[in-house]
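STRUCTURE:
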């Protein structure tokens, strides 16, 4: 098994606590609402829904090349705005990925907004080497989701306040 690591930072004018709450605390309700054409639903498969050990299943609409993914929450630290979770099951893994570990940290910036720092570790099956295009495809989808959430929060100041 190999490991490929990808890091990414993105700044936004949304306050750190709001962005964290939207992406990692209230995402079950918010993501299907802001991306209804892609995300059909998010359901809790195991656990209390927000704490360590919780497993969530994100269902995609029929016709999408993906049917679902399952994420396991490892850490949700609301005080320090850190979330760690793993992709443990889903079509996206195919015969290439064993798992994917995510670590997100959101830090306040001087302008009242924040910087979202992400580290993603792709654990591949066997001796498979992840291609740069495959990493870019995943990063592009994550950035699309981030931008949609950001725009929604900017347009709706009371959401996740």
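SEQUENCE:
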């Amino acid at each position: 098994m190999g490991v490929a690591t990808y890091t990414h930072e993105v700044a936004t004018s949304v306050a750190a606590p709001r962005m964290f709450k939207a992406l990692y605390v209230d995402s079950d309700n918010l993501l299907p609402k802001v991306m209804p054409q892609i995300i059909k639903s998010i359901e809790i498969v195991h656990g209390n829904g927000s704490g360590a050990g919780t497993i969530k299943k994100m269902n995609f609409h029929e016709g999408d090349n993906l049917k679902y993914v399952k994420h396991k929450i490892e850490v949700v630290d609301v005080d320090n705005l850190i979330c760690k979770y793993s992709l443990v099951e889903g079509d996206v893994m195919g015969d290439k990925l064993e798992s994917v570990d995510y670590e997100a940290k959101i830090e306040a910036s001087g302008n009242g907004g924040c910087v979202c720092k992400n580290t993603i570790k792709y654990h591949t099956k066997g001796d498979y080497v992840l291609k740069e295009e495959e990493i870019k495809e995943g990063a592009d989808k994550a950035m699309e989701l981030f931008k949609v959430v950001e725009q929604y929060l900017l347009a709706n100041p009371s959401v996740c306040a």
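REMARK: The two ends are 42 Å apart (CA to CA).
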